[in-house]
Amino acid sequence: MPVVYFLFRIIARLISWMPFPLLYLVSDILYVKLYYIFGYRKKVVYSNLKNAFPEKTDQEIRLIARKFYRHLADVVLEVIKLRSMSGDALVKRLHFNNLSLMKEILDSGQSIIGAIGHIGNWEWMPIGLQRILTGMHGYAVIKPLSDKFFDAYYHKIRSRLLIDSEVISFRNIFRALVRQRNELTFTMIAADQTPHKDEIHYWTQFLNQETAFFQGVEKMAISLNMAVLFLDVQQTRRGYYEVTATKITLTPGKTSPNEIMEKYIQLLETAIRRNPYNWLWSHRRWKYKREEKGERREEK
């Protein structure tokens, strides 16, 4: 086991035992280090913000950036907190506005894809929701980390509070759903990930830029007749989040090509523009550009 990973696990365990007031004091320190001292992906964040919001002044961009780094520090420590947090404590920090919509769909016998983005606390929400909804198998779809030690660690803490649900790689989710096509499932997937260069199938406008998206949500929904909902996660106060489900389609087989994706992208952009700091701006979301022939190149 690498020394860095061993030290991380010790520190993470100590952090997970902290009460929330102390946790957020540590988060304030982490924010200062991320933004002012280390400048973690600062060029990426500012480039993304300026391209997404050309109408905003430099002062407005700086304010969003600082609020983003504060939020990022909170989310990082909130995820580590899962190491010792109880399921009941987690559920109390999440408010779901319209659970009735989700329950009605499941009660009708139709499985659901919850298309989310990297907004709010995208790690807490799927765990909290599956603890509330019962009578179905849940999937939290993730993109594995490149480091095998940290990937194993986060897989463990993500899975710890799940009930009749599992964390699964995006590469395996379709096969799993096909195997369970006659059973009720609720699959949550962050559909705003950057596709691998060999997996791009769809380009569209998103946040003022031409952007590539996975089509997996749409393809799975149509193939397996799954309802598609957009789940918006907004921070109400520190450590508390409000989740709102919006129907994208209950009849995926009747939609036109790319209709599901376009509705998802529109809802995601609206959610981001409502509270810009709430999205993961440090992600190199636009590292590839589309060329005239439909190919793409990587930005240097």
Could you describe the 3D structure shown?
It is a single chain. The protein is α/β, with parallel strands linked by helices and 300 residues long. It has one domain (3-285). The chain has helices spanning 3-16, 20-37, 42-52, 58-81, 87-92, 99-107, 124-132, 148-159, 173-179, 216-224, 259-274, and strands spanning 94-96, 112-116, 137-142, 165-169, 185-190, 202-206, 209-213, 227-237, 240-249, 288-290, 296-298. Strands 1-9-8-2-5-3-4 form a 7-stranded mixed β-sheet, with helices on both faces. A hairpin with a 2-residue loop joins β6 (202-206) and β7. The longest helix has 24 residues, at 58-81.
Topology:
Layout: H1 3-16, H2 20-37, H3 42-52, H4 58-81, H5 87-92, E1 94-96, H6 99-107, E2 112-116, H7 124-132, E3 137-142, H8 148-159, E4 165-169, H9 173-179, E5 185-190, E6 202-206, E7 209-213, H10 216-224, E8 227-237, E9 240-249, H11 259-274, E10 288-290, E11 296-298
Parallel strand pairs: 1-9, 2-5, 2-8, 3-4, 3-5
Antiparallel strand pairs: 6-7, 8-9, 10-11
